[in-house]
Task: inverse folding
């Protein structure tokens, strides 16, 4: 067990360093922040001086080496655009993104699973046909379009929800929450729905397919033969076995929700990490971009590690094989 | 009032102020917030840290400068300085407005002015472009300050409009004596906090989310302006569709940078209005006139752009009216001059364009020895100016008609500007705004031979003309205004005669807002905070 975790951790470190390296390579092409920092009136001497001071003149590997040494200590330097510590900026933005991702994931699960079950059990009825058709839209429409459509309908035409921002947040220690006020929920509604729609339809279709699969298995037939009620068969036996792959997928998708909230955050001006990243890109704010990419890599690595460990716990065969092999 | 007179004498002031408070209370209850937005946030609250157009505009709400441009006439007017005098060509004396207080109630004195102007000259300041030629700032007495110049400088007053004044005591207390600089690895208190004497003061700033300014009751100018705004709430919204939606849904009062495609809808909306103003920014094309051969060009062994006939041919092949009508949807003012009409030195004569004529253009090319045209590289930004990429595409098509095959490359500003500053472009697009409203600013940067101290710092085509250099150098020190203006006009005319650049148009900036908002559209694309009115 310990060897397994260690092995995974080493792999994780390799992944992180690789991501940092590729990211750094890309940064050579995103442009020169100095031009924006100094404005158009700066003299050539000022530009050269600043470039030298920022270490932008150093060879690639020297810059990368500096970055790695600092990153290991959790130090990503100052944002070029905002002059604030990158770690502080990310800490300020993290709650917004996590809250959005969690609300969206919950929404996707709470709505997606029942709909999937319904579509599987009532196969062929017009309601389930409708659900399936609409779900196709959800899978195929790009996120920004869904976001803009929601804004148009619910903010501009109906005026029910605000079109942007997080509203007023309540500070709890370093965590800022928008989920403790009614206004905060008002603000999170549209972005959370936008972000959830793809996941929701995915989960729904997955649950339906798995459910249909499970309903054909022998133990369901036996259960029917035993004369159990439909309710017990559907929810006690079928659904339970359906959920194993669904939960695995959801776990992995959570990482995706956090990392790819970028578009939703941009459309709704949601002050999370994705928006921070996009703004950093337009400014060629290398420290912020680097830190963000490393953090996202870390989140994925951690989630994967947890999932791997869960397999280890859930699937006895994995344990036996390992123990027997050595 | 009868009841008050029954009270003992000593209690009166208290009662009066209570009564006053009661009178004011209804006014406070109907607090009028002005909610506005544009694409990005201000970079910092430190007034000397980043020379950013949006930031400078917002700083002007929180801090006063000695002088500022009047919002309607755009002439210089006194803010913290009530009068000024040229003691000698190298010494200006400013009398400060009396009784000015910072928003915390502490008095603003000559010490604060000296401190702030010195801070703008610090090594870590990015405002040294506005302190060029300052040799020493000296306090004469509490209400008088002298600026000693290293040589005659005719634009010293214009420079002062961008130099704002902060509290010395506050900076000392908060260890913000020098501007924050990215080279310094520490965050500065003045980056997220501010204490100025301006019309508004900072209540809250969450970068990229919200900047809340509230009325500064101590501001000296409130009695002179009609504003009824009590709070200014700025929320940057990056996505232009969301920004437009927030205005349409009534969540915003004002959008500084509505996108061109939303304008039609906004103009037709009964609750909104759009005000168009001409920005003091001229868009033009520059051409490499130094290298002996242009990479990417079909002409080998020589640089066709060195020939004035070729440059004129490129000029005359551009149908600027079509660009104005179609590409810009009417939102531009075509120009023949390198500066906008508000800038000193501009005259109707220098604004005359060479006429659009494909025949004339072909004839010039033939005379220059390129009857079949040639290939040449053409670079443009795609996120800097209004419709920049589209303009360049239109021009490429127009040039193709006279045989010039321009190989257009467009790129985002963060890669574009370093590229042209490495002198890699053959033909490039540039827009030049003139914060000083003085022609020298353009002539010195754009057509003076590349040198030191700002000479030719954006003369990317490396145009060089001895007569031009002579004119520019004379303007720098000429303090006789009529003579100086004549020289600037001469410089602008010489630029036209030698086709140093191809002027295209001055940008028109539309502002979108609710019908009940009154604002004054300034050519520097800034709001005048004290003139906003909500009806």
Result:
């Amino acid at each position: 067990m310990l060897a397994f975790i260690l092995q995974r951790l080493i792999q994780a470190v390799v992944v992180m360093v690789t991501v940092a390296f590729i990211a750094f390579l890309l940064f050579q092409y995103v442009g020169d922040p100095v031009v924006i920092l100094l404005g158009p009136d700066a003299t050539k001497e000022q530009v050269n001086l600043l470039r030298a001071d920022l270490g932008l003149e150093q060879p690639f590997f020297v810059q990368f080496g500096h970055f790695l040494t600092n990153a290991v200590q959790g130090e990503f330097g100052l944002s070029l655009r905002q002059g604030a510590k990158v770690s502080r900026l990310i800490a300020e933005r993290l709650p917004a993104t996590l809250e959005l991702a969690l609300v969206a994931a919950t929404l996707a699960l709470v709505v997606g699973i029942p709909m999937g079950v319904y579509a599987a059990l009532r196969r062929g009825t017009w309601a389930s046909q409708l659900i399936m058709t609409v779900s196709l839209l959800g899978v195929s429409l790009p996120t920004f379009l869904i976001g803009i459509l929601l804004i148009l309908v619910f903010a501009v035409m109906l005026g029910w929800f605000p079109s942007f921002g997080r509203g007023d947040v309540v500070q709890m220690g370093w965590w800022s929450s928008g989920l403790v006020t009614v206004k905060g929920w008002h603000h999170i509604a549209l972005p959370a729905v936008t972000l959830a729609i793809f996941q929701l339809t995915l989960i729904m279709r997955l649950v339906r397919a798995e459910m249909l699969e499970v309903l054909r298995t022998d133990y369901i037939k036996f259960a029917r033969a035993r004369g159990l009620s439909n309710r017990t068969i559907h929810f006690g036996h079928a659904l339970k076995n359906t959920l194993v792959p669904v939960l695995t997928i959801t776990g992995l998708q959570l990482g995706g929700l956090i990392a790819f909230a970028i578009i939703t955050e941009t459309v709704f001006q949601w002050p999370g990490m994705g928006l921070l990243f996009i703004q950093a890109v337009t400014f060629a704010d290398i420290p912020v971009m680097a830190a963000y990419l490393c953090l996202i890599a870390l989140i994925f690595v951690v989630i994967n590690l947890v999932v791997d460990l869960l397999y280890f716990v859930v699937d006895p065969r994995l344990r036996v094989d390992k123990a027997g092999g050595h | 009032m009868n009841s008050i007179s029954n009270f003992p004498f000593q209690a009166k002031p208290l009662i009066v102020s209570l009564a006053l408070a009661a009178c004011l209370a209804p006014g406070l209850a109907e607090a009028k917030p002005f909610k506005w937005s544009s694409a990005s946030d201000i970079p910092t609250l430190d007034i000397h840290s980043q020379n950013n157009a949006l930031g400078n505009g917002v700083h002007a709400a929180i801090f006063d400068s000695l002088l500022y441009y009047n919002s309607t006439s755009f002439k210089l007017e006194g803010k913290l300085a009530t009068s000024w005098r040229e003691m000698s060509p190298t010494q200006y004396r400013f009398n400060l407005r009396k009784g000015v207080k910072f928003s915390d109630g502490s008095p603003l004195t000559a010490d604060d002015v000296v401190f702030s102007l010195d801070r703008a000259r610090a090594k870590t300041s990015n405002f040294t472009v506005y302190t060029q030629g300052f040799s020493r700032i000296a306090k004469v007495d509490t209400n008088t300050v002298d600026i000693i110049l290293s040589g005659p400088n005719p634009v010293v007053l214009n420079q002062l409009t961008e130099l704002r004044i902060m509290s010395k005591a506050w900076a000392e207390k908060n260890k913000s004596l020098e501007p924050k600089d990215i080279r310094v690895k520490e965050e500065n208190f003045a980056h997220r906090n501010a204490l100025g004497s301006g019309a508004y003061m900072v209540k809250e700033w969450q970068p990229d989310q919200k900047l809340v300014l509230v009325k500064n009751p101590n501001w000296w100018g409130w009695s002179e302006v009609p504003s009824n705004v009590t709070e200014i709430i700025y929320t940057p919204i990056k996505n232009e569709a969301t920004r437009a939606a927030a205005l349409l849904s009534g969540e915003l009062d004002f959008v500084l940078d509505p996108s061109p495609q939303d304008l039609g809808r906004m103009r037709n909306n009964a609750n909104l209005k759009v005000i168009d103003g001409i920005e003091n920014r001229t868009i033009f094309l520059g051409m490499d006139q130094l290298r002996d051969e242009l990479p990417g060009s079909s002409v080998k062994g020589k640089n066709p752009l060195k020939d004035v006939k070729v440059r004129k041919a490129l000029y005359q092949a551009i149908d600027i009216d079509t660009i104005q009508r179609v590409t810009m949807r009417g939102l531009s003012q075509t120009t023949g001059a390198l500066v906008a009409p508000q800038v000193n030195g501009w005259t109707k004569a220098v604004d005359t364009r060479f006429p659009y004529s494909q025949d004339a253009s072909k004839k010039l090319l033939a005379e220059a020895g390129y009857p079949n045209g040639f290939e040449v590289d053409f670079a443009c930004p795609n996120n800097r100016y209004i419709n920049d990429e589209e303009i360049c595409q239109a021009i490429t098509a127009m040039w193709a008609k006279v045989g010039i095959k321009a190989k257009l490359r467009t790129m985002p500003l963060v890669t574009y500007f370093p590229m042209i500053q490495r002198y890699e472009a053959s033909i490039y697009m540039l827009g030049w705004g003139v914060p000083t409203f003085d022609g020298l600013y353009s002539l010195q940067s754009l057509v003076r031979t590349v040198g030191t101290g700002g000479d030719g710092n954006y003369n990317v085509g490396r145009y060089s003309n001895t007569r031009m250099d002579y004119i520019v150098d004379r303007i720098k020190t000429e303090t006789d205004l009529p003579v100086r203006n004549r020289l600037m006009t001469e410089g602008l005319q010489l630029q036209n005669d030698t086709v140093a650049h191809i002027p295209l148009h001055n940008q028109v900036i539309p502002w979108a807002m609710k019908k009940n908002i009154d604002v004054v559209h300034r050519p520097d694309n800034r709001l005048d905070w004290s003139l906003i009115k909500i009806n």
Observations:
- Residues 12-29 of chain B form the longest helix (18 residues).
- Chain B touches chain A through 52 residues (CB under 8 Å).
